[in-house]
Specification:
Order of helices and strands: EEHEHEHEHEHEHEHEHHE
Strand content: 15-25%
Oligomer: single chain
Number of helices: 9
Helix content: 25-40%
Radius of gyration: 19 Å
Largest sheet: 6 strands, mixed
Length: 331
């Protein structure tokens, strides 16, 4: 039995698993199931809250009253951190990549409404954001406050616990539903959800395979990031875990023009799935990953999901990211 560190109860768990009944992929017989992690909350929905249950517990244990984190302007993680900070009584300071928009929309609007302090760093200077965050920690210390820095996506050895715990939940789901998916599919952007699933698959013997579709960077980056985080996780929590057997499979080819920028077929898929099932994806994470999954299923045994009969898609949320890109939908 694994010993979890301190954790706050912030998410509505367990989330349900549903099977898609009306969304049909021509020529594909595989059944598609969805783990509805977009239902972990309303304002704080998606995968980030699972990680932040452990990160905010860490902030509390350290006696912090400020949380600093970073991400893109439409970061789901930053939005979740800002809102949870407001609920828990923390000052939240966000460092966002890009130029300040004239009119905040989507996640950014919720950041402001939640009272977060926001600094913007242009894309060309983004490599300085870690040092910027550390400088902020020191600045708050000089003001008599104590700040915890949570990295992008809460993807580190602390946040990794989020989807280790989710994997234990999946074990119960599979038993209750009498199902055994051949593959679990997720989007991956900062690597934390993927890392937790890869570790959890091995820890709880889920007897499935994890396939992550990257929305930025490349497979080599995720391989290195996950192995680094798992090593730190083992060391920090003194866990005996054989990480030499980790199966880290990142399916490339669906990033499109770049992070946060999707091509028209992704928007068409988002619309089609919403029309058929009332299930909403976003164009940054889940839309690209679901689109990639569908394309790979169409390839059959020549794709990255050979022999798939039952596939479980992790819906990691992101609904608020639809609104800033509404002009890309065609009706």
């Amino acid at each position: 039995m694994i010993q979890y560190p301190s954790r706050l109860s912030l998410a509505n768990l367990p989330t349900p698993i549903t099977r898609l009944e009306r969304f049909v992929v021509p020529g594909v017989d595989a059944r598609i199931w969805v783990k509805r992690d977009e239902l972990t909350g309303t304002e704080v929905c998606g995968n980030k809250i699972r990680k932040l249950e452990f990160c905010f517990a860490e902030a509390r244990e350290q006696g912090c009253n400020v949380v600093i984190t970073c991400g893109g302007i439409q970061s789901n993680h930053c939005r979740a951190t800002a809102i949870l900070g407001a609920r828990l009584g923390y000052k939240v300071h966000l460092i966002l990549r890009g130029e300040k928009p004239q009119h905040p929309d989507g996640n950014l609007l919720l950041d402001y409404l939640s009272g977060a302090t926001i600094d913007y760093i242009p894309q060309a200077e983004w490599k300085t954001h870690i040092q910027f965050a550390h400088d902020l920690v020191q600045r708050y210390a000089g003001e008599g406050a104590k700040a915890l820095f949570i990295p992008t996506g809460a993807s580190d050895e602390v946040g990794l616990w989020g989807y280790v715990a989710a994997s234990e939940e999946l074990k119960r789901d599979f038993r209750n539903l009498d199902m055994s998916p051949d593959y679990i599919v997720t989007a991956t952007g900062s690597g934390g959800t993927q890392a937790g699933l890869v570790v959890g698959n091995q820890l709880f013997d889920l007897q499935t395979r994890i396939r992550a579709f990257n929305v930025c960077d490349d497979a080599a980056w995720f391989e290195n990031k996950i192995r680094e985080d798992v090593t730190l996780w083992k060391q920090r929590y003194e866990i005996d875990f054989d990480d030499s057997a980790l199966e880290i499979e990142t399916v490339e080819g669906y990033v499109g023009p770049g992070y946060g920028v999707a091509e028209q077929p992704v928007f068409e898929l988002i619309r089609d799935l919403a029309t058929a099932e009332g299930l909403f994806l976003d164009p940054v994470y889940t839309g690209k990953a679901f689109y990639g999954m569908v394309q790979e299923l169409k390839k059959g045994d020549h794709g990255s999901l050979p022999g798939a009969r039952d596939v479980l898609f992790i819906h990691t949320g992101g609904l608020f990211g639809v609104f800033p890109q509404q002009d890309n939908f065609r009706f």
